[in-house]
């Protein structure tokens, strides 16, 4: 590096600027992932809060702000702390003279050259999780297989349908009829006057030529004669533009023709393309019944498990159906149809009769959701408590009346202990493929409930 | 010196028939047109640059570049992600305008032009970055000594790939831990005085292959002190410290001597150290570097205007931006946040030119060497051979001290109040200049910490020594940084703060980290 030649760059050549705008977008994604991983605790916490706070339908909307205390993100370095003595220079002296003493500003730290690092006003570091990141974390908790994750996170399938014509497109979509119609129309509009004039001129030329033909001495002679006559006339009445020579008429014809040539036969503005529009695939309708036991033993944790279970089912369904109704049925000894808010946030005490909810579900189906029009899904969550011999009733009710109406019915039990309801359901699940049961103690155990459902989907 | 600096600016070429077009929007041909004129104008003043490469980027890419310390490529680390997110948010909230330019000390020298800029701004940036900064990178002695512009991009590619490979082989977490610890010591990963030999990428690869084992041997050698026969070890050798001379480059010491680091960990320490060294000159030449670039964009664009190239509209737009760039809020302003290096540097180079061209009696007395000389060679000399500290110490004139209304303020913990120690008057010029010069001495801004001793025969703990200046203690981060040191060192670490009289006034300790596996 020591000795450089004395070079004067050749003044002709300069490398042109490089356009990087399309390259290397999102270069920092890797860094962002590392950042998210490092803050995974807070991120997970935020996602959890969002799931608690949001309605089942809104979870899929993704996105959430994550708040991280600034001190967790600090990168420590050696530096000077407050104390000792330091002298600094500042600009903008107005009134001080050497030796002046100035009161320290409150809060100790001065207007010193070194930055104040003892700032107490620690703002949280807030950033926004994108929809993908949010769903990923939600799915991670649920331990979804990757394939399922992508199918779920995807927006529904679209199909492309015709929707009129546009001005730009690819050649294979060119509409020849429309383009030609434009071209001809434009031609007519542009050439209207020229065409008229051209016809007139041609006529004149014809006349001239017919004069020539009459004259056996030939054209030149006739012309000669004609111009003489014209000359006489002109001198009498001044120049008459109507009367022209053969050449000048031919010239004018040529000018008009060449002008007409300049206007292209087919111009880019004539081109019309068949337009296509993406519309969501027409889906049939589905209704999802959420059944939950709200007796005293269902605590917040169990409710959270149940809620995630319902969310997941909802997400699966949004993948397949355009319109989804959700019906919330809660029950203790008797069942009630309620709003989502009431469903998750109320608790009552008392016994449990599960069949009451099933009966209500059946009743609602018969009244509002005829099974010919609706795809019916049932999701039931409970801690397994049930009134003495009601479990047998439930099982019978499901088998005989509900399952034939339903596409799928899933039951999760949020405690380990097996009571009579579980035993009855277990027997039923063996016999019936559209019925699945699972014990779930952690969110990661929810997914297998749906596995059966998906295997069926694949076959279909 | 690489290029002969003309004594006076070379004459202008033929006057153009018409001014360059100046629409608001830039276009590629227009940038080239302007660039050519800027280049020709810069050459008249003897600005010697690396070849220029202009790149058009989007705002998002600008933030990308910001986040990875302004480099077009870098290894992956969460802190860059954090940086990106916070920049992005501030940008979208409108709290922060993006810098007009980023320029990379590499050969060719890459200058980024943001797509949002107007044509006038692009011209300013080209003059500022591609000719101002670029010639500074090529000319300033610190850069010449410490950085190799030709190989930095290759080295960063190597670093990125190496660290990615480490992540794959050893897991993110372990790599991240090592990087976190290295970053905590990055400012102490530079040789301040010793001059390392420059390595090209190819040499670097060969070096790594050959020396990996050898380096490990070296490390082992230190620890393989087979107990000597009792009594034969002289008291002197027991008392001897290791290292014998204090070592200022903490990362270097760790790379070479930390007992438990694996080869790949040593290489990461080395990578961080090399990058820290690359940035070291920039940290010492903020005022000079920005001042130089600002002086030249101002000079070049004004010259182009005088020569008949620039339109009035473009010139007005340029002057507006320029005025904003060199604004220095006074201490009483709520926008005051220390010195604006653009303002101070620009004022100083402009002032040096003034001293050369129109010296007053005061200037002749203060600057006998340069008063009345040709300004161009003097200005180049003031760029080549100084860093901020010495530049201010040498060239800050009484006139500038008056113009800026500078005053020095002493903040002593033993005093109830601040004391004004000097102002912009005859009695104060020298003191103001000295204090300001000191303010830019990196050694003053960062605590002086060196490796003092290793307990080779005992618990292998490492002792760092902090020499206090003006009795200033260490900050609250210290304990946490020590934990990072201990993680790299593998054994206990302590730091002693030594007062100016040599007495240890404070000791902080960090115990040996737990080892998951003792290899």
Automatic annotation (TrEMBL), chain A:
- Indicate, by first and last residue, each region the UniProt record lists as having compositional bias (Basic and acidic residues): 38-77, 87-106
Location of the region described as Disordered in the Swiss-Prot/TrEMBL record: 1-122
* Pfam families to which the protein is assigned, alphabetical: DUF444
- Per its UniProt entry, which superkingdom is the organism in? Bacteria
The record's annotation in PANTHER family points to: UPF0229 PROTEIN YEAH
The text of the family note is:
Belongs to the UPF0229 family.
Output this protein's name.
UPF0229 protein A2845_05860
This protein's species is Candidatus Lloydbacteria bacterium RIFCSPHIGHO2_01_FULL_49_22
